[in-house]
Amino acid sequence: MWLLSTVSKNCSDELKFLSNGENNGYFSHIEPAVSSPWERITYNAAVNTLLQVREKSFKAKVELGTPLSHEHMSYLVDDHYKKPVIIYEYPKELKPFYARLMEDGTKVSAFDIVVPKVGTIAYGTQKEERMDNFTARIDELRLQRDHLEWYLDIRRHGTVKHSGFSIDIERLIFLVTCLSDIRDVKPFQRTKSNAKC
């Protein structure tokens, strides 16, 4: 939110240039993200909201325990809340094995930040630091322990409570600039004709 408000306040000439001299489209797009607090909802609340939708049918099935599709998230931010949404407390099956289990043992400490017209711009998890929970999760998923021994050693010898997150820099720039095609903000284009390996 700070980035968006700073850019809209300090870079109006640049934004006007990017929008071909018409700033109205830009500010109508960014205004909801900077003018009010972002909505914070649990994964269960997101699914329940989607299950109550009658005016639209989704291609992907909506039910508890299944991933939210791009279409689902778009509906939440573009049509229902009309502002950025932070979705948290995901079922453990939908996030990486190293995500920290919550007290109920069914959900993990994880989040996604979804914004209108762009999609998910950031996501993250608190990492599991409790060795017994960590190894139980590996066993539950039937992951090969010998492939994860190095990771288990990190946890055994000096782990601390910590979290991590990722920001999709291209989507963030796309959000800030309000260009019409995300390919315009990619620093290194990867298309069928120029993807050389």
UniProtKB/TrEMBL annotation:
GO biological process: asparaginyl-tRNA aminoacylation
One Pfam family it belongs to: tRNA-synt_2
Gene Ontology CC: one annotated term: mitochondrion
Domain Aminoacyl-tRNA synthetase class II (D/K/N): 18-191
GO terms assigned for molecular function: asparagine-tRNA ligase activity; ATP binding
Keywords: Aminoacyl-tRNA synthetase, ATP-binding, Ligase, Nucleotide-binding, Protein biosynthesis
InterPro entries: Aa-tRNA-synt_II (IPR004364), aa-tRNA-synth_II/BPL/LPL (IPR045864)
The keyword Nucleus is annotated on this UniProt entry: no
Keyword Nucleotide-binding: yes
Gene3D superfamilies found in the cross-reference section: Bira Bifunctional Protein, Domain 2
Protein name: Aminoacyl-tRNA synthetase class II (D/K/N) domain-containing protein
Provenance organism: Setaria viridis
